[in-house]
Each structure stands twice: as C-alpha cells, then as structure tokens.
Design goal:
Order of helices and strands: EEHHHHHHHHH
Helix content: 40-55%
Radius of gyration: 19 Å
Number of strands: 2
Number of helices: 9
Structural class: mainly alpha
Distance between the termini: 58 Å
Strand order of the largest sheet: 1-2
Shape: globular
Length: 184
C-alpha cells in the first residue's frame, strides 16, 4: 500500500495547487483504512477556483459559473458566503487536514459535506431566520438547515479558531514594547 502526502502551494492567481507524493508503507494491514481516509481527504481538497465554482452551483440565486475568475464573481460569491473563495478554500483545507477533533466524519469529506460547509457559512453571514428559505436557496430539505444538522457545521467552523486565531505572544506580551491593546 502507498501512503500519500500532499502539500498546497499558491500560484500567481491565488489558486491553490495540490500536489501528491507517495511513500511506501510498512504495515499494509493497518494502513489500508488510513490510505483510504487519506485518499478521500486528498480527493476533497479544493482550490479557490473549485470553491468559487461549487459555491455558484450550490446556491440557487447564482448563475452556474463557467469561465475565468473575475472580481465581480468574487464579489458575488462574498455577498452570499461572507468570505472570498480563497479564505473558504483555506478553511476547508484546514477542516480536512487538522489533527484537532472538530467532529468531521469521513462522510463529511464529500460534495455533500462541502455543501453543508457553504450552507453554514451562508447562515453565519446572512443569518436567515426562516429554514424554508435557507433550504430552498440551496435545494435541500428544511431538516438539513435547522437544528443540530446546521449547528454541527457551525461548531466545526468555530473549532478552527484554535489554529486560525494566533496571538503573537512575543510582540504583544512584551512589557517594554510600544504596542498596546486597549478595549473600552
């Protein structure tokens, strides 16, 4: 069996390129499940272009996206999801690869899981008060966009704060520094 390792790097258009390298594995019986999990994870790593395309496809109010990346399309995407496709691609990557227990299952590493990720982002951004309207916007049943089905994804996004929000200890905790944190 082969264990795949991957890395993500930026190119000039701020798209992420995913590359995979393979290394031989020593324990084939133990690594079969691990290999399948890694392959599922690699298959669901999305570039910002993929996120933009899928975001347009999943939301009923947006036209199907085909073509080049433009500022207008990015702004349309941000008006529905609250963040740019680059930010959401990075968050999705972190969900797929984090060692933190965020509650992500193997079944969540799919297009359906990514759709729920986008629904949770739309919910956090627009905070629609009617589950019927939210469900119809994404062509899903009302049950998927209310209660624990929705809040589970919101909690997974919130769990990323452990790796996304980093306090620069050296800079801000220096008693002789010139940067002050003030709140009122």
């Amino acid at each position: 069996m082969m264990v795949q390792q991957f890395c993500i790097r930026s190119n000039r258009k701020n798209n992420l390129a995913i590359t995979a390298a393979q290394e031989p594995s020593t324990n084939t019986a133990h690594n079969t499940t691990a290999d399948n999990n890694k392959q599922a994870t690699i298959a669901m790593l999305l570039s910002p272009q993929d996120v933009l395309t899928k975001g347009f496809h999943f939301f009923n109010g947006l036209p199907n996206f085909a073509g080049s990346w433009t500022e207008r399309r990015t702004n349309d995407f941000k008006s529905h999801y609250g963040s740019s496709p680059i930010v959401l691609a990075n968050q999705w990557y972190d969900l797929m690869t984090t060692e933190l227990n965020v509650g992500l299952t193997e079944a969540d590493k799919s297009d359906k899981g990514f759709k729920m990720f986008l629904i949770a982002h739309h919910f956090l951004w627009a905070y629609p008060k009617n589950a019927k309207i939210l469900g119809s916007a994404f062509s899903v049943c009302e049950r998927l966009v209310q209660g624990d089905n929705l809040w589970r994804w919101v909690r997974m996004i919130a769990a990323l704060k452990a790796i996304k929000i980093i306090w620069p200890e050296e800079e801000y905790n220096n008693p002789h520094g010139r940067i002050f944190i003030i709140s009122s």
